[in-house]
Design a protein that fits this description.
Helix content: over 70%
Structural class: mainly alpha
Largest sheet: none
Shape: elongated
Order of helices and strands: HHHHHHHHHHHH
Strand content: under 5%
CATH superfamily of the domain at 105-317: MetI-like
Radius of gyration: 26 Å
CATH architecture of the domain at 105-317: Orthogonal Bundle
Oligomer: single chain
Distance between the termini: 57 Å
CATH class of the domain at 105-317: Mainly Alpha
CATH topology of the domain at 105-317: MetI-like fold
Length: 317
């Protein structure tokens, strides 16, 4: 027809639109969006770098700095930082850097293992309470309230004082104390995780996709494992990072009070405990041991803040 506009039969625009859709979805996927939010948290990113350097130092450092941790040299006691001893020496002439690198492995391992214990127990208790409701829910939450009301540090000291000798006879001085400290610290840190998981389950179990899974015959355990827990992991991850920092402080406190690892097994808390009587003569000893605890705990707390912001879609960064 004269004057009519020719109609294009090409399929390019629909194809282009279709090809753009996956890219748009990938760009705004939950993982990428969480990473974008976390990257914009400057303190969390800086803390991640610092914590990564600390972990690399304690893991690889003893392989590079091969000074024995218990080599006594009274002629070099309480020396300041030097090329031979970058962190100085203690009152027995032992190299502080070597003891800090070795002790960092134990302190960080205690924090990580205690966090895993606390998260496992907390997730288990919270899931059972959230799915059961009724008397089971009330009883488990009463138990959590009971543990929250207990004075944790005196209880921790009492348990370790009573059972340390028997465990060290079975598992050795290092393994026995490690298992006991991890079990006690983790066993006294699960309550917050349990409350978080229970609250998340009570909220998520009323969503449409859970009702659909229930209508299709999914059991309670399948609903929790396949559908509810993956959507409730955000608060658990944040609580876990905080528990790592709390466990490191708890282990350092025990070692500082002389109830942690024995003197020949250095941890950051044990090195700080040994330095308390020579603060005026060797301030470097306290500075390096306390500074390592401070940097590690502060970095973990900032990373927890960044994860909280990144995993909460209601926050705008």
């Amino acid at each position: 027809m004269a004057g009519s506009t020719p109609v294009s039969l090409t399929a390019d625009p629909p194809v282009a639109a279709a090809s753009a859709t996956p890219a748009r979805k990938a760009r705004f996927s939950p993982g990428r969006e969480a990473w974008r939010r976390f990257r914009r948290h400057k303190l969390a990113m800086a803390s991640t770098v610092i914590l990564g350097l600390i972990v690399a130092a304690v893991v690889l450092g003893p392989l590079v700095w091969r000074v024995p941790i218990n080599e006594i040299d009274f002629s070099a006691k309480l020396e300041g930082p030097s090329l031979a001893h970058p962190f100085g020496t203690d009152d027995l002439g032992q190299d502080i850097l070597a003891r800090m690198l070795y002790g960092g492995r134990i302190s960080l391992a205690v924090g990580l293992a205690a966090m895993l214990v606390a998260c496992f127990v907390g997730v288990l208790v919270g899931a059972i309470a959230g799915m059961s409701r009724g008397s089971v829910d009330a009883g488990l939450m009463w138990l959590a309230d009971l543990f929250l009301a207990l004075p944790q540090l005196p209880l921790l000291l009492l348990i370790i004082y009573l059972f340390r000798d028997s465990l060290t006879k079975v598992l050795g001085p290092e393994g026995g104390v490690f298992v006991m400290v991890v079990a006690v610290i983790g066993g006294l840190r699960w309550m917050q995780v349990a409350r978080l998981v229970r609250a998340q389950i009570l909220s998520i179990r009323e969503k449409e996709f859970i009702e659909a899974a229930r209508a299709l015959g999914a059991s309670n355990s399948r609903q929790v494992v396949r559908h509810i827990l993956p959507n409730a992991l955000g608060p658990v991850i944040v609580a876990g990072t905080i528990d790592v920092a709390a466990a490191i402080i708890a282990e350092s406190t025990l070692s500082f009070l002389g109830l942690g690892f024995p003197p020949d097994i250095p941890t950051w808390g044990r090195v700080l405990f040994d330095a308390k009587d020579t603060m005026d003569m060797a301030p470097h000893w306290v500075l390096f041991s306390g500074g390592a605890i401070f940097l590690a705990v502060l970095s973990i707390n900032f990373i927890g803040d960044g994860l909280r912001d990144a995993l909460d879609p209601r926050r705008v960064l």
